[in-house]
## 1
Amino acid sequence: MTNQLRTGFTVNGNACPDHDRLVAWVASARPTTMLVMDNRPLAVELYEVAQGETKVGHRQYDPAEGAEWKTKTPAQYVSEVTAGLDPRIYVQVLNEPAINAADLLLLLYWLMGVMDELFNRGYKGIIGNFPMGQITQAHVEDGLFDNFLKHYHQYRGWHVIGIHEYTAVVRYFGVGQWPYYAMTPTEYFLNTLLQDMSYWPTREDLPCAPLPDGGLPPYWHVRRADWLTIQWIGMGGTEAPEYWVTESGYDNMQDVSEVFPALVNKWGIAPNYDNLRGFNSLANIWGAYWGNEWTFDMAAFEQEKWLHEECYPENYIGWNNFMWTSDSWRRDGFDMSQNLQFQSLLIDYAVELRTPPGPDPEPDPEPIPPELEQLFEFENKAEILVFLQANPSLVPLLIEIHSHIQDYFNAPCCRLEYDYDYDYPELQYIIVSIPTSLGLDEAMELDRQFNYEWWFNNPGFAEHKILIDLDWSSPPSDELPHPLWKGILGGVVLFLVFFFLIFFGILFLAHAQSIQALNAGGITMDQTLIEIWNGLSAIPIFAAIGFGVPTIYYLIEIWKRFLDPRIPTPDNKWLAFFLKPTPVGLFVFLVFVMAGSYYLAGTYSQEDAFRTVIEWVNTFFDAFGKLLLPAVVVQTVGSKWYNSNRAAGVAGFNAPSVTR
């Protein structure tokens, strides 16, 4: 079944009531097809409001309609019907052409010529629009349509074969292989076959296939064009022809006319209508059949839904209910423009068809094995159930893990949690959290023994579907091995180092300014000395910048730890990077020292280049030697402090828990 509404309307462009509502309906429902009679601008408007999702055809009325093929060449006809027509709009080619059996081949060859002309001019066509009785079983079986079908399939996907299909009283009257003898005005026929919804044929009842003896199925009112499909497939075709039902609905047809007097006698014609023919004239009958459960418009909609879901195959791209009009056709019940509930139900159904079906509901997971229920608590139970169903071998492994946890940690009840890697969602696992109130050093030692003596040697470890963690729900103990006051003291020391670096930078700068002031007052001082002190002032300032960033971050972490000692904080990699006595850490610190020295060199006078270079080298190494020792001392002290506080988590390096 297609995901688009296939019910549309044939619109009388010269007598179109409620234009705005029609446009709004097409914009909302976006049916596969709509047909407009004698109103080219309206056809374009409907196409555009449907944003190109609706195939819109245009039918041009001609006083000789149906007989044009006898008096005009394909080229003449195409020139007339495409004059002023937007190429996005399909051309309805003829309307119920009037022929006798002897003329059928002439008509079909004329239509083949029209297909060529339309294609060459960039127009698409709805070809033929044959009336109910024109496609007959005998003509198809005798091969009269064979060349037409071959020619059409050169343009399949461009042109569409147009047909008219009407039924009587209810949509399924005459559909499928209903025997003709059932269509007699007996009480059984009127009260059972027509009324009982259990008799509505299903898709399985309506195969597009020949009978067991190879012949075509007899007597179809609806889907009579299946005879062409069966013939084409029998000729070796692979794709069924596409059909556009440009007129569809209900009528009093000659071959079943004997039924109608009985229907009129029993239930009468709906008020305000002259004949028992179109849609609305059937209100009395449908009310008698389904009035206890449906309104008239609901009954009409249910039959349209049946056409979608049970009757028409997908190669019937759409059918246009005849009609949307305000002229004399209303007297016979054909106008559907005022059936507001019917239109609304079609919109709702269109939305339903466009909505993709959701995934099949997940089956209820099997309950967790009772032994796991007793041993573990569950963080996200539903996800754990699904994961264990996909990995049943983890159940005995979890039981074994719990047993060994008792041997090492004596933890009565562990917690399970399902999780996955956000960068690689296919990596999924269960986390086993071991609750403990032990001190950090003791807990970490037990964790090391647990891992190296058992878990790392277990085959389940290699699957990486279970992670095992330590978890403190509160600080390990009130007597922390490294209490908070040590962290605060470390912060004070770092701040003082930062402060004195800035202080000495300012002091050196002030000294340079003092010498310069003496010069201005008449006391002659060496200009080089001024430049040296200016340069020296930059060295501690640059060093302070390099030292200040981790210091500020460190103090912020101290404050957070002070507010709540249980707050888990990540490793302070900035502080570790600057304070650990590694070649990288020392190099970074000295870079800032050298930057200050470079600034020092840049301040020298260029009057005596040789003297300047010699003095710069002496000054640089003098400054470098004086600062190298403090740098090493700071690195060593900072490293010792980092290592002593790293495990405690009291100074912003680590929280008192082991995180995964």
## 2
Amino acid sequence: MLKRLYSEKEFQNFAREFKDAIKYCEVPASYFATGKTYAWFKNGKIIAGFALINGYDNLRAVQHLPQKIKLRWRYTKIGRNLCEHTGFFITPKLKGIDKIIYGLQMFWICLFHNRQYFIYSYRYSETHLEKYYSTGKPLSVYSGPLKPLEGYNQNETPENEHVEVLSKVGLAKIIFYRILKIIF
């Protein structure tokens, strides 16, 4: 069941599950509290979720960028209509009809969100994500080394990342492609 989170305790739990799922970064619970954060619960435990964060200067995917890239995008049509889509799911635990319902609910929420474009980032080594996002024909914002932010392991050499933007149509393509793949 998908539920919107509101309390500090819920955001802390979400941040902990997010860190456990993606391994390399601990996003502060306070970041998730700045937007609309949703979690899919199964047996009382979060197994998937996503957050939609507004405010160009607040977006972690934007804060990572080199300054000249950040400035180039700020006042464009896309930059003015941008939010960050940050999410995760634990694949073995979210499957079948639950995965379809989760995808449809996420799409519905994003469709009616007040921003038209979604920015996100992922590591070069996560080639499965590159393949996943390519269905939506994303616009590449930047590829290369990013500035580590709060929550990143400072003792680790940061891996290069892709930063991309998807439109609502691109997001729809991904979700419906994934649903068809589950069904057939």
